[in-house]
Amino acid sequence: MPNNEKGCLWVVATPIGHRDDMSLRAIEILRSVALIAAEDTRHSRPMLLQHNVGTPLVALHEHNEREAVASLVRRLEHGESIALISDAGTPLISDPGFRLVRAAREAGIRCMPVPGACAAIAALSVAGLPSDRFVFEGFLPPKTAARRSRLEELAGDPRTLIFYESSHRIVESLADMRDVFGAEREAVLARELTKMFETVIGEPLSQLAARVVSDPDQQRGECVILVAGRGEETDAKVAEGQRVFAILRDELPPAKAAKLAAAITGAPRKLLYGDKGEG
Ligand code: SAM
């Protein structure tokens, strides 16, 4: 541990399922710090005890973050080292901790990562989708209109798209992805990674959406959805979609023509008729 009058803030990854996905260094640091700031202390205590970590815990979650951050930074300034963990995986990745890390850095506290599990990266590593460039989108908005509009913003992105989704919205989200990105766009559903019912299924969005609707088991547990970026295949579909759109537009209102052209060719509707392709 660096020699520093102030304490250090260690940002420590914990498992996303399998208890052994905890690094030796993570265990050593969690044992050595004065305090562990955890999203849910009742959730984390048993996991820590499995690794013989008996360090005192304090809660840091979205509802107490403001007060908790001020008191944790004071303790760090007085020389205590603190570890930050979340319920699972890497803190700050769709989890609390950003305000603490920011405040600690502003106070001149050294912040050090102890890397480990992260569901997005674990999913990407086995998805078989291009991994040289990707974008992590976290959770989509829960309401349909906002979700679709976020997806429409991403329809032309050539990078692999990574989303977190809760099991009770998986059906709606996959249907929206199919409609916005096109039925043929390749996607992967990575569920329950590192756990007993781990499954990783890759197929075109139309098939994946239909499979999840018809199989309630695929609607359970925790999941990551990955979608291939817009590729050459999509470019060819867009060219075909534009050709069909031009024909239909002579006979139909443009929004209707775009919707039909998208359905016929599999081209994303937004790429045929901008943001106006509703209806
Ligand atoms: N900080 C975590 C990380 O590093 O991955 C993510 C926390 S976020 C609140 C929880 C979401 O991560 C879940 O809803 C799911 O989308 C994803 N997730 C977490 N564990 C997972 C697992 N074992 N398999 C698949 N997805 C998982």
Automatic annotation (TrEMBL):
Gene name of this polypeptide: rsmI
Highest rank taxon of the organism: Bacteria
Protein name: Ribosomal RNA small subunit methyltransferase I
Record's keyword terms, sorted: Cytoplasm, Methyltransferase, rRNA processing, S-adenosyl-L-methionine, Transferase
Catalytic activity, as annotated: cytidine(1402) in 16S rRNA + S-adenosyl-L-methionine = 2'-O-methylcytidine(1402) in 16S rRNA + S-adenosyl-L-homocysteine + H(+)
Family recorded in the similarity comment: Belongs to the methyltransferase superfamily. RsmI family.
Transmembrane portions of the chain: none
Domain Tetrapyrrole methylase: 9-208
Record-linked CDD domains: RsmI
Function noted in UniProt: Catalyzes the 2'-O-methylation of the ribose of cytidine 1402 (C1402) in 16S rRNA.
EC numbers for this chain: 2.1.1.198
